Amino acid sequence: MQVHHSDPIRVPPASDTPRTPYFLSNLDQNLAVMVRTIYCFSGSHPRARGVNAVCAFDALKRALSRVLVLYYPLAGRLAVGADGKLYVECTGEGAVMVEAEADCALEEVGDGIARLGRLVFDAADAQCVLEVPLLVAQVTKFKCGGFTLGLGMSHCMLDGVAAMDFINSWSETTRGLPLSLPPFLDRTLLKSRDPPLIDHHPHLEFAEIDDVSDTCALHAFQPLLHRSFPFDPAKLARVKSRRAGECTTFEALAGFVWRARTCALKVRPEQRVKLLFAVNGRARFVPPLPKGYFGNGIVLTCSVCEAGVLTGSPLGFAVGLVQMVTDGYMRSAIDYFEATRARPSLVGTLLLTTWSRLSLDTTDFGWGEPTWSGPVALPEKEVVLFLSRGKEKKGIDVLLGLPEFAMRAFEELMEI
Predict the structure, then answer these.
(1) Sign of CA dihedral 241, 244, 248, 254
(2) In the sheet that 224-231 helps form, which strands lie side by side, from edge to edge?
(3) Residues with catalytic annotation?
(4) 93-119 pLDDT, tens digit each
């Protein structure tokens, strides 16, 4: 597939917006990466007839300009303050949009994530993260009349929930509707305490682990193989049945995947291994964060165990290590970063993130819901993604990358 791009353009807010520095909380600081997603729209949808990619681009551009008036920090750029932390310079220069054209039909692309990467604009000339636009959008037309919207959004600005709120606001504006959920922009709700107070939590998410198994070398000699493993409701029930006692589906599947991945990598029994996973803390803060909170409301929580103990114990042991977070833990984590500026260590780590509750497939800009939507970037070697499966979202797809030797073993362990 060949994709030809036009020159990128800037889309500024439609009217004047504040130019004061925009505060980013400590939960935003460690996430200076772009999250890329894709939305595919078929030209055969009844409401898409007569809508081509040029029309879609113009409609999206006009609506983006209007919605950026409310989401004005996305029209700025990252900067580093005197305290060494990131904030946003609200320059009003705008988001980036690109028109593109592919030399094939949309159905020929499939859902291969590697190929989909060509459908999201990459600011390749950026010298550092401070030069990367906070929001990029690429509209690509296909020979069949279908088109895609590829988005890249800075994780410093948005977690999954906030991203879906923004995209829904953009889609409502495109359809000429008022916003059902305006953004709540004040991130100072999550400022650290003065002085910082670390409340009896070890915060092992930041702990350095000795790499006694030379886990880096495990990935050095073989390229990562990426696979998606489907768990329908029946298979999820079988996973939960292996755990004696009550647990959630997430806890059961997280423990199952962590244990299986550790087995597959064949690390030494004395190697300490870490499970990091992102928890949506919005409803767990006291008081809860307001609806429409624009920012990161996710907190990393952590479990650490020796590999031999993890793999040699029943599944229930691994599941029991998967701990949820409280307001005290989250406030302590915010203060821990303020006091130490530590960043999570990924040696011997599985980083689990779940997109299974994000409604990527219901976004309607006026020409129907997407025929396919999902992430574009493949997981790094430490990352596992949980994605929703099926129209009713009752199943979960587990997406990860492993060296070939480990992937073969992991595939066997997934057969239950």
Answers:
(1) negative
(2) 224-231, 395-403, 383-389, 349-354, 272-280, 298-306
(3) 155, 364
(4) 999 999 999 999 888 886 555 577 889
